[in-house]
């Protein structure tokens, strides 16, 4: 009996050290990976869990590669896709137009994430809130790829998605990029900055109906920070909309939304300062 217990313990600790037991019970959005994909989490079994993909990139000496990792933005362990170019972005949204992943989802599904991390997905509003609320400022990256594979990008610095009590209100700072600024400027006066999140079952928008339910060719808009309604919407499955850059005339195929710490406030080291030699 005693010996069996000892063996059992040794077996358990082997499982734990190889990470085989470490994932499934803890990562709160593990439903974004199939059981098969869960084996390929790149930092499985590591003791130190990074706060986000940038943290991971930095501690790897800029060596970490793209893929799925465990991160811990606040108290919650989650899985996320890391795009390691430009210092490690944590991907919060990826859509392929007309793919089979449905973006017409409920408040609860947008809250906790849906889809597949290695494919089309929404990371989850709770985790987007945890990531962007610091410590430190975060920025939002947008990547749009049109049907001719032409890429446009943009960044809002800083970004904050407030908590669920605030209906995940979006707060955006200064914009720069090759895409138009479709979230804080719109010729038709649809502003997404400062809007609360709306889903088909929770209407927080400024329209007399629910913007998330409005259909284009039979497909509803999906969850988004609608005004009344949109100058941009990256969650409508059949048309990616970003003002003049992506719409039903100028078709886009893919988008990514991602976050990483802001580099607006950089620590200036004495060595970086130009010194006048007299
Ligand atoms: C997506 O499907 C719609 C409806 O079938 C079609 O009109 C549109 O061209 C498709 N979009 C792309 C980028 O292929
Ligand atoms: Ca409304």
TrEMBL record:
Keywords: Signal. Residues 1-22 form the signal peptide. Pfam families: Fibrinogen_C. Residues 44-263 form the Fibrinogen C-terminal domain. CDD domains: FReD. The keyword Signal applies. InterPro entries: Fibrinogen-like_C, Fibrinogen_a/b/g_C_1, Fibrinogen_a/b/g_C_dom, Fibrinogen_C-term_domain. It comes from the Eukaryota. One of its GO terms (cellular component) is extracellular space. PANTHER family: FIBRINOGEN C-TERMINAL DOMAIN-CONTAINING PROTEIN (PTHR19143:SF422), FIBRINOGEN/TENASCIN/ANGIOPOEITIN (PTHR19143). This is Fibrinogen C-terminal domain-containing protein. The lineage of its organism: Eukaryota, Metazoa, Chordata, Craniata, Vertebrata.
């Amino acid at each position: 009996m005693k010996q069996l217990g000892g063996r059992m313990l040794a077996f358990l600790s082997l499982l734990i050290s190889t990470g085989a037991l470490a994932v499934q019970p803890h990562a709160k959005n593990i439903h974004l990976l199939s059981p098969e994909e869960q084996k390929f989490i790149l930092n499985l079994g590591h003791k130190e869990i990074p706060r986000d993909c940038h943290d991971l990139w930095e501690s790897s000496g800029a060596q970490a590669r793209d893929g799925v990792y465990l991160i811990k933005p606040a108290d919650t362990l989650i899985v996320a896709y890391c795009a390691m170019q430009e210092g490690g972005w944590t991907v919060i949204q990826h859509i392929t137009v007309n793919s089979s992943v449905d973006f017409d989802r409920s408040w609860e599904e947008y809250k906790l994430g849906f889809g597949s991390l290695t494919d089309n997905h929404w990371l989850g509003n709770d985790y987007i809130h945890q990531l962007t609320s610091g410590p430190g400022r975060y920025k939002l990256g947008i990547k749009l790829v049109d049907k001719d594979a032409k890429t446009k990008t943009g960044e809002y610095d800083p970004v904050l998605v407030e908590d669920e009590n605030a209906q995940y209100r979006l707060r955006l700072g200064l914009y720069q990029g090759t895409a138009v600024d479709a979230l804080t400027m719109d010729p038709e006066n649809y502003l997404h900055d400062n809007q609360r999140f709306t889903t088909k079952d929770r209407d927080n928008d400024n329209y007399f109906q629910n913007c998330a339910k409005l259909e284009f060719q039979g497909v509803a808009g999906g969850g988004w920070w609608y005004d009344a309604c949109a100058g941009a919407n990256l969650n409508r499955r059949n048309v990616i909309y970003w003002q003049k850059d992506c719409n039903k005339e100028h078709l886009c195929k893919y988008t990514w939304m991602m976050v990483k710490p802001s580099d607006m406030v950089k620590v200036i080291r004495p060595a970086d300062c130009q010194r006048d030699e007299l």
